[in-house]
Design a protein that fits this description.
The protein has one domain (about 5-110). Helix content is about 40%, strand content about 15%. The chain has five helices and five strands; from the N terminus they run βαβαβαβααβ. It has a five-stranded parallel sheet with strand order 2-1-3-4-5, sandwiched between helices. The longest helix has 11 residues, at about 40-50.
Length: about 110
């Protein structure tokens, strides 16, 4: 499975909280991309074979316009805790793994 790249709008703590099932994933802050524009994050993910995890709709728009990779995991739940996001990603491990392997799909929307 491809590695996850957590966007600015998600907690950096998710990297350590999810290391058991998404090892070697990273947060944009740890890459020096904490203040980067979305298109730069998208390009980094593309160049380094990451799937972007975000709550930002801009990334799905990039995918539609520019194609895939990178693949996008778009979390569409409003205000919620880091623990809620962690559970969403744990509960959807199979779907995320399938997205990683699917050559026809590029966006997974999670609620």
């Amino acid at each position: 499975m491809k590695l996850l790249l957590f966007d600015q709008n998600l907690s950096p703590r998710l990297v350590e909280h999810l290391a058991d099932i998404y090892p070697d994933s990273v947060h944009v802050f740890s890459l020096g991309l904490g203040e980067a524009m979305d298109i730069n994050i998208w390009q980094y993910a593309r160049d380094h074979d990451y799937m972007i995890v975000t709550k930002d709709p801009d990334f799905s728009e990039f995918g539609i316009i520019k194609g895939f990779p990178p693949k996008i995991i778009w979390i569409r739940r409003g205000n919620c805790s880091t623990q809620d996001i962690e559970m969403i990603l744990r509960d959807n491990f199979r779907s995320i793994n399938s997205l990683s392997a699917d050559e026809e799909s590029g966006i997974l929307t999670l609620f």
